[in-house]
Amino acid sequence: MTSPSSTVLSGGITTQSHRLADGRELIYFDDPGTTLPRERAADARELDPRPATATMRQDPLTGEWISIAAARQNRAFLPPAELDPLAPQSPTNPSEVPSDYDVAVFENRSPSFGPLTVDDHAPSGLDDLAEIGLERTRTSVGRCEVVCFSPAREGSFGSLSRTRARTVIEAWAERTRALSELPGVQQVFPFENRGVEIGVTLQHPHGQIYSYPYVTPRTQRLLAAIDSYGPSLMGDILAREQAGDRMLLRGEHWSAFVPFAARWPVEVHMLPHRHVADFAETTAEERDELAGLYLRLLRGVDALYDTPTPYIAAWHQAPVHTGRDSVRLMLQLTSPRRAADKLKYLAGSEAAMGAWIGDIPPETAAQNLRDAIARADRAHPVEPQESR
């Protein structure tokens, strides 16, 4: 058993760092008032060495970089519950987490970026990445982490308690801060994939955090839009939506709405009311409120139909070194589910040309979601915020 020193974060959440058998970092985030013991078991497995850091290649037609991470072919695919790699270890399950936990974060065993963060062939900066050439390659430096929301073997973020949701949000903020300080990291991206329809390979409630060695294509397009419109773009969008008929939820610090030009049958954006570039810049009060509003939103999305809704919950954050005064932290939640038994597939126009056709008017989608949130509030109310 090991018992390293603990760090107390906002909201009374504590954290401690360990190492897995192959050297990967494992960090426990404990709920305030947790009943777990402070001591945690060491990882006694015998593991193969970590795979070599992948190489990324530039597409000269777009300037985009594609990481070729062959080690990902060997990752777990829908294992049986008794071999859940994200459950606490047991005598019959040599999983990734040696001890019971509230929230656990660890380096991905088969990462798309990393484990190296420094390399002689790594990108030398954003100008280097922006150059166009034939058969250009760079080392895929960076870091990929898995965020286990709960030791439970089934569920999603929406099935968490409010206390646990707050702990996960604290983990996102603390990991965003730490990962942004790593050499070579240009952008940090927390997200949750939910449902086999999305391509989820593990049923265990979890998300991931990618730390990219470049600014992602989606964010580059946002930066170009801000450059054309002006630095107030995201604040102006929020003000317009708050006055319109696509609003879903509004608190003191956050608002959620269906965007004006929604691409997906279910698409929700959530913005903080003040400008913050990423989770690390949010206050304890903002994180407290987000825990409740986000749970209400996700439970409403699940209440649209009789079965759980597949989705991607993508927390867009400003790049580490650019655009921080104009790019605001934003949730973009999307689902391909366009009816109880139908999915939207990206066929010719969307997949080949990036030219989207919406199936449901955003105003209709917003009303459907408001009704679903009301049903979820009645059936599964979010518990009140605990006083600190």
From TrEMBL:
Leading EC class: transferase
Ranges of residues in domain Galactose-1-phosphate uridyl transferase N-terminal: 57-215
Cofactor(s) needed for function: Zn(2+)
Residues covered by region (Disordered): 30-55
Catalytic residue list: H206 (tele-ump-histidine intermediate)
Entry's EC annotation: 2.7.7.12
GO molecular function terms attached to this record: UDP-glucose:hexose-1-phosphate uridylyltransferase activity; zinc ion binding
Any single GO CC term annotated in Swiss-Prot or TrEMBL for this entry: cytoplasm
One example of a Gene Ontology biological process annotation: galactose catabolic process via UDP-galactose, Leloir pathway
Keyword Zinc: yes
UniProt cross-references to PANTHER family, sorted A to Z: GALACTOSE-1-PHOSPHATE URIDYLYLTRANSFERASE
Protein name: Galactose-1-phosphate uridylyltransferase
